[in-house]
Specification:
50% strand; Porin; 8-stranded antiparallel barrel; mainly beta; 12 strands; 219 residues; two-stranded antiparallel ribbon
């Protein structure tokens, strides 16, 4: 119940922020951006590098160095495996699969070159922001050897937030269509079970994104 309440709180906060964002003076029709892309989560530690699918919206006005993005990323189920021991020091291999996750993000970007217009072919930028994981967790029916007497246990679904940033570039094909490429690092914060060494399913990680960006260029 606690996890459900946290997820609902996160969704409410995100909805509120997005509503205020839409009402702000900089969110005019010209300069609105929309994106479709993929994001590689280089999680490692027995989880590999699952790929998520991102829908984004924001604003990028000609003549302004700062731009903004709200991202909604769907991360499908992926497998995990790790080695530990139980309290008798016998080796144990724990494995399983995760539930799909929905990750909400809000990012600020800064153009490294003068942002004159979208006729510029390359527009490198730096970005900084945060994300919140609202779903996820292990599929209980798929867990193998996850026991209370293991020295390391699989983390349950809980609130997880991250702070991170990176660098990237826009490769503009036209004034309204471009390719967005970005790489960076996300430091993920997770709650632990009391007294337990927890194996988190979404941990700190490098990431790589690639996708199309559409920009409204006239009223």
């Amino acid at each position: 119940m606690k996890n459900i309440s946290l997820s609902l709180l996160v969704l409410c906060l995100y909805t509120g922020v997005s509503a205020q964002y839409k009402k702000a003076s900089f969110f005019e029709k010209t300069g609105r951006t929309y994106g479709l892309g993929t994001r590689l989560f280089a999680l490692g530690d027995g989880k590999g590098s699952p790929i998520g699918y991102t829908l984004s919206f924001g604003t990028d006005q000609d003549g302004k160095q700062w731009f903004y993005n709200c991202d909604i990323t769907y991360l499908p189920s992926y497998s995990f495996s790790f080695n530990t021991t139980n309290y008798n020091d016998a080796p144990v291999t724990v494995s399983g699969t995760t539930k799909p996750n929905l990750i909400l993000g809000y990012f600020w970007g800064y153009h490294l070159l003068k942002n004159e217009n979208n006729e510029q072919l390359f527009k490198p930028y730096a970005t900084l922001g945060f994300q919140m994981s609202t779903l996820g967790g292990p599929k209980e029916e798929d867990l193998v050897n996850d026991s209370w007497d293991n020295k390391k246990v699989v983390g349950e679904r809980n609130f997880s937030g991250g702070l991170g940033g990176g660098v990237g570039t826009m490769l503009n094909f036209t004034s309204w269509l471009g390719l967005r490429l970005e790489g960076g690092y996300m430091y993920q914060f997770n709650f632990k079970k009391d007294g337990a060494n927890t194996y988190h399913l979404l941990n700190k990680h490098p990431y790589v994104t690639a996708g199309l960006r559409f920009r409204v260029v006239s009223e």
